[in-house]
Structures are given as structure tokens and as C-alpha cells.
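Teaching note: in complex prediction, the entire set of molecules is handled at once rather than each chain in isolation. The prompt given to students was simply: 'Predict the structure of this complex.' The entities are:
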Amino acid sequence: MILLKLTWKSLWNRRINLILTVVSIAISVALLIGVEYLNKETKASFLNTVSGTDLVVGARSGPIQLLLYSVFHIGNATNNIGWDSYQKIAHNKYVKWTIPLSLGDSHKGFRVLGTNQDYFAHFKYGEKQVLVFSQGKPFAGVYDAVLGASVADKLGYKIGDKIIVAHGGGATSFSLHKDKPFTVTGILKPTGTPVDQTVLVTLEGIEAIHIDWRSGAPTGIKISAEKAAKMDLTPKVITAFLVGMKNRITSFKVQREINNYSHEALLAILPGVALADLWHTLGQFETVLRIITLFVVIAGLLGMLTSIISTLNERRREMAILRATGAHPSQIFLLFIIEAFILSFLGALLGMLIVFIGVIVAQPWVLSHYGLHLHTWMPNLMDAAILALVILFAVLFCLLPSWIAYRRSLQDGLSVKL
Amino acid sequence: MNVITIKELRFCWKGQASDTLSIKQISITKGEHVLLCGESGSGKTTLLNLLAGILSPSSGELNVLDQNLQALKPSKRDRFRADHMGIIFQQFNLLPYLSVVDNVTLPCQFSPLRAKKAGDDKQTAIRLLDHLGLDEALCQGTVSELSVGQQQRVAAARALIGQPEIIIADEPTSSLDTNKRDHFLKLLFQEANAQNSTIIFVSHDPAISGHFSKIIELADINRI
Ligand SMILES: Nc1ncnc2c1ncn2[C@@H]1O[C@H](COP(=O)(O)OP(=O)(O)OP(=O)(O)O)[C@@H](O)[C@H]1O
Ligand SMILES: [Mg+2]
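The expected output is the structure of the full assembly:
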């Protein structure tokens, strides 16, 4: 008890110097925990986005690629699939619902997704949540558009605003579909999924704006918006579609059927499996990141070790006084161990606090910029293990100065060298 | 009654070619005020280390309070020192991060025996400090606010608290001027007498020999 009190008072006396030590440990621990946390959150968020979908179907390519471009709007499709193939699978007896997806255009950097009413009826994310409107209603006419929460928020749109869709992706696309503007009819509530970053329009709308285009360029023949709307706007191709099964168990069966579909090279994936594949691919990178952060923690602890060792000489007198008043050399040894324990414990605790507060501060920003809903950070078993590990390392490192102090207190006795 | 008995004691520092100390016989009785003098490097501090049980003699007999220190395990010797001895250094006696009172009560933290004898250790500390001429206002402050002379008196109070049988002082007055030195000695002796403690005092300074009942010239008893 007396040792704890002595260490604490001694630390408090040197607090100005030690704050830096504690802060550097805290930052390294925050980094370690933060990386683990972000890793977990990203995975959870990805999984949330596809949680209501049983199959994703697109043109044959890599499963990860299909998943990324169709659901997460990362990268582009290499090929489209025919409307007739879609119709055929949509009427499969095991299939409960489908959502067609038509990608390729953008608005000020946000993807434009052509789909139909089924999107609002069947798309589910998180724990089986459906899309909810914060304003307005689903699209009805050919040139209606529904905005994801981030899109509306960042671009400051409200119901009734007109938006012009650009051909292709990217914020600076020059070929605009200027002649056929869309009208905002609804704005969705934030979902923490890529939906927030999306402009939703009708499949017919997508068809209409491309009606006087061929192979990605205007043909020169102008067809007005009104005229186009009256033409047959049934799409010939779509990019991909999502499938919900009547019974999840049949997913595998239908997947096999689609993959063996003879009229067109299709690929059906189970989104959970594709995600697992993706994480597996990134596993290497994760490991490297983990090792780097571990080294940062070790560097932080070495900083503490340096600061403790540098005080050894000036504290030689202190040790002699303690010896004279009855302390055993092993108690001198313990004094330094307790010091390392307290410093690393405070550092780790502060690190956790940094993560906790950092997450709370970052939550709204990350949601609006990345459509990622961060859960408030709470320490779990893993974090407890990290805490224990940091303290263990600190104590192990501190065996050296403790040992030096122990040896010296045996040698010095009452004759204190200054 | 003998507080300290030394017979045929020899001590050699590790790494040194010859003995630092080789003493045939010393005996010190209870309540004596002993001055240990000798030139620099003659081994005075070494002898105090032996008496305090921090060093062990190479050979010979060393009894403190009828206890053969050699018979005790190192941890027991530390406890023995905490229980029965108060120690004052030449200077820098105090832990800068403890309050004045906490510095004084430090031995009670390591020795339950002295804690028991001291009773309410904070009260006792304040009383001792008062007897040694430090008023209460100073006692509440930090150690760094004290002059060197005041610091030495705090160290004396720490050595005295819990009535240890032996007070060991290694040149505690060497950084004090003549007036302060005499004042310090007077107060220390007064308190030591009040609790019947034996004093073993090391000094270079021949001028203070008049205060002591017994003078040991190390050169006379050390046969090297
Ligand atoms: N820790 C040590 N290790 C090795 N030798 C030591 C150690 N301390 C002291 N000595 C040696 O022991 C001898 C006696 O030293 P000691 O400190 O006892 O002298 P002293 O009489 O107290 O001197 P002073 O009056 O200067 O304090 C010296 O020759 C010194 O070299
Ligand atoms: Mg000396």
C-alpha cells in the first residue's frame, strides 16, 4: 500500500514530464484499438448493406467485382445482362422478389441508379430495415428522382428541384443529359449504406435519356423529353439485379441454376460469401496494418522506458532514503514496476477515451461523407486483451530499470552518490 | 546494557584488494552519544552501513540490540533496521514529492512496531517537528520550501519518530554553519534523551566533540 502511495506521489511530482509519456502511449493504443474498431465497423457496415439480399446477379465476372459494383457502387460493370434473362429469373418459382439495377450514369459525383418501385418495396438493410422517406415519395413519372440522404444533404436539394444527369461516372463528366432533367420527388432518411450516396431514378428514365444515344455518345438526332416519355421505354439491358428468395435455403439451388443459365453468361453470388472472400483477400493487408500498429505501441512503451531510465540517476538519492527508512531492495524493484504499471494503465485508458470521444465526434461526419454508420465505441473483450497486453509489455520493459535500481540500492547502501 | 557489540570485524568492498575495515572491538551502551571521527575515506560510512545491516561483514561478530545481524535474512535485516534505527544523511534527506509530515512518518509505513510506538503518527510528527523548532505552518508545506538547516531537522524528526533504540547520523551538520550546527545538536540530543535513544554520529568536525559522551577515532581502532 505504501509503495502504491509512494509511486503515485512520485509520479504526481513529475507529472509534467510524464504527461507526454502517457499521451504517447495513449496515442499508440488509440491507433491500435481504432484500427481494429474501424476494421470491424467497415465489415459490419458492408454486411448491413446486403443483409436483406439473398443473391446478386450480373454478367459473368469475378464475384467480388460483381458485389462491389452492383451493391457498393465501387468500380464498373464490364457487361450488362439482358432484360429477358432478368424476367425469366424473376419469375422463377423460388424467387420472392427482385430489384433490377441499372448503373452507369452519375450526378455531381454521385451514382445514378435506375430501378423500379420494387427497390422501395423490397430493399432491406441492417436488421431488416426498409427504406424510409424523410420527405416526399417514391418516383412515379419517367423523369422523377429520389435522393439518398447524403446526396440531398451535400448538394442542398429539396423536393421539386431539377437535376441533370451526366453520362458516365465522375464529378466532371462533360457529356450531360441536359435536355432531360429529373425532378426530385423524394429524399430518403440516412441508412448508413451506399444508398445514401445514390440518386435513384426509374429504369424508364435511364432508357429515355439514352434514347437518342448510341454506344455512349449522342447520335445527333434530338428526341425531346416529352416525346421520349411516350415511346416504349422497356429497357433492353440492365446492369445487375438483387434477388430475395421465398426460402433462403433455396438460394444455392437458384444460384446454381443461374450460373448454368445457357442463353447468357450470368453470375449469381451469395453476397455474404463474396464479402467473406473479399475480407479474406484483404486479410494480408490487415495483418500488416496490425503489425504496424503493434510496433507503434511498442515505440510508445519504449518512450516510457527511456523516460524511466533517464530518471534513475536523479532518483538514486530517493532509493537510498527509502532503504534507510526500512525499504527492502525488492520493494525498490516493485516501485519501478508499479510505476510502469500505472503509466501504461493510464496511457491505455486515455487511449480508449480518445477512441471513444473520437468516434462520437466523427460519427456524423463519417455518415455524411462515407455513408458509414459508426457504432459508438464500447470496450469489448478484445480491447481488454489489448489493455492487458500493453500493461504486460510495459512491465516487461520496465524490468530493466527496476533491476538497475535494485542492484544499485544493494550497492549504494547509505552512501549515496550524487 | 550493550546496544552494539563488535568483535574481530572485517570488511572488504567487492573489487577492492585490501580490507576497508578491520576492527578488534567496539561496544556502545544504551543512551550513549558516540562521535565517530576519522579522515575522509577511512571507512566511517562503511561502518555505519554495517551497523545498519545494509552491508554484511566479511567475518567477525556484529551484535545490535543483542541480535546477531548475520543470523538474519536480508529482508529481516531491513525490517530490523526499520524497527530499531533512525538514519540521518549529510544532506538531501527528504523525498521531494512527500509533504514534510509524510517524510517524517515514512518509517512508520515500513515498520508496524514504530507505527505502534508513535501512536497517531501525524500528531507525533508534528509534535517532534515542533520540539525541533519547526512551526506547524512549515510542516504543512512542501520540502523544497525549507532551508537546509530546516531540512536536517525534518530528517532528525524522521529518525526519532517511533522511538528507535539507535539513531545513526552521517555528517548531518556538515552543511550547517556553527550556530545552526550547535542548535541542531542540542535539539537532537534533547529528543534522543527523552526517548532514551543511543546516538552514533559521524563527523569530520573536531569542534563538536564536546557534545559527546564517547569519541571513537576510527584510525585508532581500525588495524589497517
Ligand atoms: N560502494 C562502494 N564500492 C566500493 N568501494 C567503496 C564503496 N563505498 C566506499 N568504498 C571504499 O571504501 C572506503 C571507505 O569509504 P567510506 O565512504 O566508508 O569513507 P568515509 O570515511 O565515510 O569517507 P567520507 O568522510 O569522505 O564520507 C573508500 O576507500 C572507498 O573507496
Ligand atoms: Mg562518509
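Point out the following to students. The beta strands of chain B are 2-11, 21-29, 33-37, 59-64, 67-68, 85-88, 166-170, 198-202, 214-217. The mean pLDDT of chain B is 88.
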